[in-house]
């Protein structure tokens, strides 16, 4: 029983520890309202973290939600893919802000494992991969996928080389067997004692006779010299563990037993070579040359060398004139490359496989070196007169990329630089990792990392995803909820409102508005018509509204409202025309209430009485208002007359049109009761300005005695 209790306690402790380790830190609170966002990735089902992984997973792509306004760090994690991060800025917007993040597949590099298991002599040998020293055996070298040249070098051993094919995430094993360099000996003697010995151009410390040991297997040049004899030279083939004996014949060229050759040239001071050995400068008498055939050559800087073979007999004397000439190709341009067998071109002419050299004229020349699987080397060089030049072409391993996309004509960026449009092929791309971006308006950017392999053209195919501009049902409802009758934000295209109101001075009013469209992201228009009336008077007008600035909660715009009207129930031929136009600014809060301030000019021209035709009205007195008939016939009450003259700025002006203008300020409050209905109130004032006669009971009995210059209308709006 005690054992059971003990096991239970251990289980509880372990379980509690596990739960504690799985807990995440609480996210620090952010103030402000939340706004809708949508986060997606390619591929999908990546875990989403915000700001830090320690706050836990928010969801998986594709994900829609709401987060506070401000900057957020989005982190995506998915098995087999590199971690993706992006900073987004959440703004005030009723529409979901979309973020798309492509993910790069994680590629573990391949490795080359070079060991000394097969041959202990290989331990400590230098390891070179693709011409770069990587360390000593044993060593593991990370490489990109593809073919690589592995070389192993150690003193006293032949170099070992092997091509290996490496795949991502795999290991290529190299176990070199080093072959010791075979060596032999050369016994050098001469028919004269104490002659100098040269091996491959290097002076040997001993003189004849001498045994030269530890000579590498292969061909070598032995030269024996002793003045005044002509130097003796011979090429010998050294074999493993064998001794080769050579005897230099110098005696025959001593004491006048040879022949003489006098060498002349048009260039004084030119070097004279006999059988490849310099013997002096022109003009020169070369004496006691061993009988037989010899090659005489003259060389001078800035001139083409010239040579001639002569036959020398014992006691003979020969005069040889070798004139040197300057030519277009009088300077040697040599091209070498660490990559063997590369094609060499000079000034567009193929010279051969590296290394190569060509005599060229002094001046500028174009050197091009290329080889399959390497980036082309191009360089302009300037060759100076008489100065040979060597150009070393460092070829970099390279491949190619073929870009295709659906749809086509998308812009391709390689490592951030635009290089063309799909479909296209980019050659001579350096081996290694590169970032590819394919972009097309109206589509999400395609971004991916690629590894370029030497000598291969890799396909990059992008299926671009169209940006989803359709609104969700939630977004549509939010937009409809925010529609206003008097706000600075014009209605979107396809949306409309119908408002009904009651108040003073207009007892009843109705206006219909419909969205027209956008000229830009900020400039939006709508238009509509309005009907309103008080007493026996009615008006009909057209309305236009434009939004200049729309930053979410704040909007700035302008409006115009112009029209006119007449009266019911009579034939007085009175009419009224007006124009309203001004600015407005709105602030929306809590997604439901909009507060709008307006300031605009109100201009009018009113006819209060029928036109006069001589001493009478153009209509019967019975059709004219009583105040007009009384004023015309002189039966008007003196107080009423003074009041009319004051309102219309002069005696007798009652029979003319009443025109005026004033600035009106107003405050509109609109509260969304639902997605479909809003309640609104419009409060207007005319501070310290004249009355409008049409708004007094002297002309319309339904009005107050004086124009109050403060007006109010309350109503409902139905939104579509």
Polypeptide structure, described:
The chain has 720 residues and is mainly beta. It folds into 7 domains: 31-102, Sandwich (Immunoglobulin-like); 110-174, Immunoglobulin-like; 183-252, Sandwich (Immunoglobulin-like); 255-321, Immunoglobulin-like; 331-392, Immunoglobulin-like, CATH 2.60.40.1120; 398-463, Sandwich (Immunoglobulin-like); 473-607 and 657-719, Porin (Beta Barrel), CATH 2.40.160. Helix content is 7%, strand content 52%. It has 4 helices and 54 strands. A 10-stranded antiparallel β-barrel has the order 43-44-45-46-47-48-49-52-53-54. It has a 4-stranded antiparallel β-sheet with strand order 3-2-5-6, with no helix packed on it. A hairpin with a 2-residue loop joins strand 37 and strand 38 (417-421). The longest helix has 21 residues, at 2-22. The two termini are 75 Å apart.
**pLDDT < 50 stretches:** 1-22
Number of strands: 54
Straight-line distance between termini: 75 Å
Write the CATH architecture name of the largest domain: Beta Barrel
Strand order of the largest sheet: 43-44-45-46-47-48-49-52-53-54
- Write down the CATH class of the largest domain: Mainly Beta
Helical amount: under 10%
The helix/strand class is mainly beta
Named CATH topology of the largest domain: Porin
Global Rg: 51 Å
Count of runs of 4 or more consecutive helical residues: 4
How many independent structural domains? 7
Beta-strand percent range = over 45%
Return the average pLDDT rounded to an integer: 85
Q: How does the overall form come out from the CA principal axes?
A: elongated
Please summarize the sheet with the most strands.
Answer: 10 strands, antiparallel, barrel
